[in-house]
Specification:
single chain; about 325 residues; FAD/NAD(P)-binding domain; 2 domains; five-stranded antiparallel beta sheet; three-stranded antiparallel beta sheet; 6 helices; flavoprotein; FAD; oxidoreductase
Length: about 325
């Protein structure tokens, strides 16, 4: 990541429209600022917009990817390359591989292990909003995280997860999650008193939690697990908030509501092309190269074999840098 001083764009900038919003002022450490804009300064880098990868084709031997078939503005085209890196995210990378099936690979490309698409994980996530006794003037509340419950302790045999602050809710978000306001409150007043938390617990790898493709449409099959531990994590947070006395001085003994994130919230997607040393039970090796192919690297959240209970983004970035360095020093030079 290039974090050198950057000349920001001349654009409005407000913290209450920071998290979850594009930042025209270019003050966020996002992919555009840290990677794409710098990469596009090189003459041998091209960004193709309005483009979808349809499939990957191989040579007759089936050990080398030779073509990337794309659709751009409704037109099908074929690109050729000596080395291919697939980084479409755990869901879409799996879908591309499954759609690349052929007579030689009836179950999809890089899928001799039958693991492509399996073990899909995206965490047990919940947003919890507590109504504070005093107004909370914070515009953007991501100021601390708590890992006190990340490991097993005397009260719980297994880890519960991670707690952090969440970007400040506004009245529209609160109304969407809680159609009836708290007694004596308007939605606007609730937002002014809100303190927002994000809770993350690990979901476990399950081969039946998977990505498949049916008639060109991606299908995700997912049965939640580790819900009991996530429930305990919520209880511990609420217990701590009540103990502070700042969330229990209302006439109605404090108001809490929370909302779990379902399968339509795939921000932490991982686990569909898992890493391993045995080609019979994994998809990629320790440098994210597909076991079945000489020149295909799959570098996104798919390589995770377990999800932990924190955002996987930094680990994905670290692995991308590691794999890039490996390709540069060991593959391209040869």
């Amino acid at each position: 990541m290039n974090l050198k001083p950057h000349k920001t764009a001349n654009a409005p900038y407000t913290l209450d429209r920071f998290d979850g919003f594009p930042d025209a002022a270019e003050r966020k450490g996002d992919a555009h600022l840290c990677s794409l804009s710098k990469a596009l300064e090189h003459p041998n880098v091209q960004l193709m917009t309005n483009t979808k990868v349809l499939r990957l084709n191989t040579n007759e031997a089936g050990d080398t990817v030779t073509e990337v078939v794309i659709e751009q503005n409704g037109e099908t085209k074929t690109l050729t390359a000596e080395l291919v890196v697939l980084s479409a995210g755990a869901i879409n990378s799996a879908a591309v591989l499954l759609e690349s099936k052929s007579e030689k690979f009836p179950n999809g490309l890089a899928n001799s292990s039958d693991q492509v698409g399996r073990n899909y994980m995206f965490h047990q996530n919940s947003a919890l909003v507590a109504i504070y006794t005093e107004p909370n003037p914070t515009k953007f509340g991501k100021t601390f995280g708590v890992n006190d419950f990340y490991h097993a302790n005397k009260g719980y045999e297994y880890p519960l997860g991670h707690i952090q602050m969440l970007g400040k809710s506004d009245e529209h978000q609160i109304k969407a999650d809680s159609p009836v306001p708290a007694p004596g409150f308007t939605f606007e007043l609730m937002a002014k008193h809100a303190v927002d938390f994000w809770l993350t617990s690990e979901d476990l790898p399950d081969p039946e939690n998977r990505v498949t493709v049916e008639n060109g449409q991606i299908k995700i099959s997912y049965t939640p697990n580790n819900q009991e531990g996530h429930g305990y994590l919520k209880e511990e947070l609420i217990k701590a908030l009540k103990a502070s006395g700042k969330f229990d001085s209302f006439l109605f003994k404090g108001i809490y509501f929370s909302k779990g994130m379902d399968i339509a919230s795939p921000a932490h997607q991982n686990g569909t092309t898992k890493m391993g040393t045995d080609p019979a039970t994994s998809v990629v090796d320790t440098y994210c190269k597909a076991h079945d192919l000489n020149n295909l690297y799959i570098v996104d959240g798919g390589f995770f074999v377990s999800s932990g209970a924190v955002n996987p983004a930094l680990t994905i970035i670290a692995m991308a840098l590691r794999v890039g360095e490996y390709i540069k020093n060991n593959v391209l030079k040869s």
